Amino acid sequence: MIEKDSPLWWVFAAASAALYIVAMFPGMANWRQKAFVSCGPVAGFVAVMALSAHYKWPLVEMLPVYCAINLAIALSVVGHMKALRAYMVERAENPDKPEDGTATPWILQLAFTLPAFLGAAYWYVGNR
């Protein structure tokens, strides 16, 4: 198993961010949405950096958590791409329209995927 302070985690972090972008971009209806989605890996990295700095942990040891977040979000849209695209087109055309529950399938999938991936990542970081 890879050590938590291995430099390979930087490669995995870049790959997970790329997978996030590849998974999310086809579902976005316009460049504004794509720009917003592109900020996800950056925001996640900033959050992991802040967590690392606050608890005085080496940043490289927190990269498994960063990878888990990106992978969980990317996997939350698997199987829901057409519905996500239709939803994002509708949101682009009618931004003031209230939510009608059409986002439920991938949000529900994210609600199960994110805690599982984060739990595994925190277990890995804590036990290595």
List keywords for this structure.
about 130 residues; mainly alpha
Architecture blueprint of SSEs:
Blueprint: H1 8-24, H2 31-55, H3 59-76, H4 81-93, H5 104-127
Helix pairs in contact: 1-2, 1-3, 2-3, 3-5
Structure description:
Helix 1 (8-24) runs antiparallel to helix 2 and helix 2 (31-55) packs antiparallel against helix 3. This protein has five helices and no strands. Helix content is 76%, strand content 0%. The model has no long low-confidence stretch (mean pLDDT 91). The protein has helices spanning 8-24, 31-55, 59-76, 81-93, 104-127. With 128 residues, it is mostly helical.
Summarize the amount of helix as a percent range: over 70%
Low-confidence stretches are none
Order of helices and strands: HHHHH
- The rough form would be described as elongated
How many angstroms does the end-to-end distance come to?
Answer: 10 Å
Number of strands: 0
Computed structural class? mainly alpha
Provide the residue-averaged pLDDT: 91
Helix count from the secondary structure assignment? 5
Q: Strand share of the residues? A: under 5%
| Computed Rg | 16 Å
What summary fits the major beta sheet?
none
Kindly report the oligomeric state of this protein: single chain
